[in-house]
Design brief:
The chain is mainly α. The chain has 17 helices and two strands.
Length: 453
């Protein structure tokens, strides 16, 4: 499909998709995610069937306005909050296959069938598969290594999906719907975190990912497997919602204020600082890069973000018991151990998998830093193969969507303080949305050039 065909298809879809039932999609997602939050109290088959029904109804509702690949991607976005739940309705640790990962694989297979696979991504993915399989021969626990390698592999598949949507399935209305659905799922996740806290505090029964730590700190993460993942995900929702309002993808001020209130409240409840620090750092980078200049609304936005950071910071500080807000949480020890392990295994690392790094680090957790972690586990060769897929970003007109830029900055800054960022799920989606944004910009630019000619 040529850029012109893509543009005219997008124009037609713009008129039709104005009727996308966003309220119905929100209520559908809210009901399913509340049920999923209580999965430990329900028969696993009930939760599993509910997940399949949710995906089927969601796709049925959006497929009236979009192609099947587009509809499947939208349902995948909606699955982010429950993506740490296995497709069998149990914990992901029990069965490391989720509806989210299956959706990513299915999208890849559709692209493969359409013969629109981007060669660069195909080659880099193949190199990673070869490296991961070879690494199984030098680790003590190959099944543990295979589980993490599979997560990384699913993430790398998203780059082929990115390239496909960039070239073939981008449109202004589809981009808007991707953004709205992402915001909805972030707000739904925020609500489930708040609900989780209320339920645990009221009944004493633990649901979802809940932790109690020394010095009186309590943390909540909904269904996400890591508290830092949860806080960083919420921070991305804060940014996207603010820019969606500025760009009129979200038109009601009441929707903005209610959504931000839920997001800020849940960010405080997670009691993890990663999202807060990433939000602050991304705002600072945006200010330095001039993303907030020459626009009164943008100036108001930057002030609003500052207020969010201040309120969230005070809230997290008050909830951390006697633990300081700037306490390192033993990260310096993790970094030192990780760097030392890399020095001892510089080329191919120690291999993937929890059980394998525990052999070297003992009780110390995985280093909460993207580069240190993957240098330690994959060495220079492994990290280079993983980073190869990111090179295409250098060719994209990303600066045309300031909201997406800030979200990417926030996530990549956050990846310096969380373990195994590729398991976060939402990183794949944010990257895909970035490509859809760029594809839309290119199509519109080509149309403008054609009209002027």
């Amino acid at each position: 499909m040529t850029p012109m065909d893509l543009f005219y298809k997008g124009q037609v879809m713009n008129k039709i998709a104005q009727k996308v039932p966003y309220a119905q999609l929100f209520l559908l997602g809210l009901c399913y995610n509340i049920l999923a939050l209580f999965h430990v109290l329900l028969p696993s088959w009930v939760v599993a069937i509910a997940g399949l029904i949710f995906v089927a109804i969601f796709i049925a509702k959006v497929s009236k306005f979009f192609t099947f690949p587009q509809s499947l991607l939208l349902s995948t976005i909606a699955l982010i909050p429950s993506s740490f739940l296995s497709m069998a309705g149990t914990s992901y640790a029990n069965l490391p296959v989720s509806l989210f990962s299956l959706s990513i694989i299915l999208l890849f297979l559709i692209i493969l069938r359409k013969r629109t696979l981007e060669p660069w991504f195909a080659v880099s993915f193949l190199f990673f598969i070869i490296f991961a399989l070879l690494s199984l021969t030098w680790v003590e626990y190959p099944l543990s290594a295979l589980k993490q390698a599979a997560n990384i592999g699913v993430f790398l598949l998203s780059f082929s999906i990115c390239a496909y949507f960039y070239m073939h399935e981008s449109s202004k209305q589809f981009l808007r719907t991707c953004i709205v659905v992402y915001i909805q799922t972030a707000v739904i996740f925020a609500f489930t975190v708040i609900l989780q806290k209320v339920f645990i505090d009221t009944t004493g029964t633990v649901i979802g990912n809940y932790g109690e730590y020394a010095l009186g700190r309590q943390s909540y993460a909904g269904l996400m497997g890591d508290f830092s993942f949860a806080s960083l995900y919420i921070a991305t929702g804060v940014i996207i919602l603010l820019f969606a309002y500025l760009q009129k993808n979200v038109k009601n001020l009441s929707t903005l204020l209610l959504g931000e209130a839920l997001l800020i409240g849940s960010l405080v409840i997670t009691n993890a600082r990663t999202g807060l620090f990433a939000l602050a750092a991304a705002t600072l980078v945006g200010a330095i890069a001039g993303l907030f200049k020459a626009n009164v609304k943008a100036v108001v936005l930057s002030i609003f973000v500052g207020i969010i950071i201040l309120v969230s910071g005070l809230g997290i500080y008050s909830n951390r018991g006697e633990q300081s807000l700037i306490d390192g949480s033993s990260r310096s020890i993790e970094y030192s151990s990780g760097i030392q392990t890399f020095v001892e295994h510089p080329l191919v690392g120690i291999g993937f998998g929890d059980e394998n790094y525990e052999k070297y680090l003992g009780d110390n957790p995985l280093p909460h830093n993207f580069y240190i972690q993957y240098l330690m586990q994959g060495g220079i060769i492994g990290l280079s193969i993983i980073l190869a897929s990111f090179l295409l970003f250098l060719r994209l007109p990303l600066t045309k969507d300031k909201g997406i830029v800030l979200v990417l900055v926030a996530v990549f800054i956050g990846s310096m303080f969380v373990p195994d960022i590729f398991s976060s799920r939402y990183l794949s989606i944010i990257i895909i949305i970035a490509f859809v944004s760029c594809g839309t910009y290119v199509a519109l630019k080509n149309e403008k050039t054609h009209v002027e000619a």
